[in-house]
Amino acid sequence: MTSLSPLLKQATPVVVDSARGCWISGTDGREYLDFTTGIGVTSTGHCHPRVVEAAREQVGRVIHAQYTTVLHPPLLELTEKLGEVLPPGLDSVFYANSGSEAVEAAVRLARMATGRPNVVVFQGGFHGRTVAAATLTTAGTRFSAGFSPLMGGVHMAPFPYAHRYGWDERTAVDFALRELDYLLVTRTAPEDTAALLIEPVLGDGGYLPTPPAFLEGLRERADRHGILLVLDEVQAGVGRTGRFWGHQFADVVPDVLITAKGLASGFPISAIAAPTALMERGWPGSQGGTYGGNAVAAAAACATLDVVRDEHLVENARVRGDQLQAGLRPLQQRYPGISDVRGRGLMQGVEFAQEDGSPDAAAALAVQQATTGHGLLTLTCGPAGNVVRLIPALVVSEQEIRTGLERFEAALAEVLA
Ligand code: PMP
Questions:
Q1: Among 234, 272, 380, 389, residue to substitute to test ligand 1 (most atoms within 8 Å of Cβ)
Q2: Interface pTM (ipTM) of the complex?
Q3: pTM of this prediction?
Q4: What is the DSSP string of 123-163?
Q5: In angstroms, what is the span from residue 416 Cα to ligand 1's centroid?
Q6: pLDDT tens digits for 1-15?
């Protein structure tokens, strides 16, 4: 009998029969509150009626119209709609299917536009699983172990992880910026460096918000050295953090922005945006792909952006995120195994440590697995796997957050009491 590959690692035993809003109905007859959203994808909740209708309508018109062969209205409309939310100056968009593909497209663009080979990434960043994206990923050796050699030209600088060093944020930011400056004189000279690539909130690397002062320091260095600042908004973008883009907590505009996941509520589409003048420094045909900017996915993305605007979901993510964090924080006093609660908006992480301060992956995994039993779906993350992440849909209600908190505490009590 054929079975799914053992190379997949299953976070829950749930098989989904159907799903609506923040809820998943399992084939086991149980209802689960979904605080995973397909790893931050179903932004407007499962099967939002407007997204379903847009996709259904598009399926009856044209499903696939390869965008370098013929164009189609959903893609043109999506490009216009993105123009309403993209940071100023990023007026040119290229579409792909997945986050990893878009990350690769951004690296190709940065290399072509600058004529420089190297990319600097920040420790703990996650940028995808294709070989190039895995090279850029430093969120855990499990994302690249065993299939080297990876892509060349990637250098890693420290991330200002204040909590890990027991420092205040300013000290951590100063340290990380000084180390970046040192990297630019010891390993990759500015004239060899095409891009600084960073997430606004480290996602798979542990749900760590990037301090605004760090992003501002990166912007200053990028300007000084003619290096491009590339923001990977694949997980943090489209409202999840309580701002439309996760980097908007800082006073910076990136040169290249990467988006995917929440953009189309579950349909695969990703994009990079940059100033036209920057895109023009590459050559026509240097980017492409068979399925990129698929018509049904583009129609779903248009509907998603409309719903995010009309239902004030960025604001909801901020308010419900504050509620979630305010409910999680006191748990740290009640359960000493919790070493940190952090995040932005509806991207909250609960970190577990042993008494000596070392990461407690076993506790995080046990809690994550126990939440399933209590009717709440969660995931783990972090290089050591010692963080449980909570990523509800942006439509989550006050009552659903309360229910989620109750179920999360029930799992904590079961595992840690
Ligand atoms: N960048 C970030 C920040 C991500 O969170 C992810 C996915 N977790 C990716 C890139 C890769 O996206 P995909 O899995 O769609 O290739």
A1: 234
A2: 0.99
A3: 0.98
A4: TT----SSHHHHHH--S-GGGTTTS----SSEEEE----HH
A5: 31
A6: 999 999 999 999 999
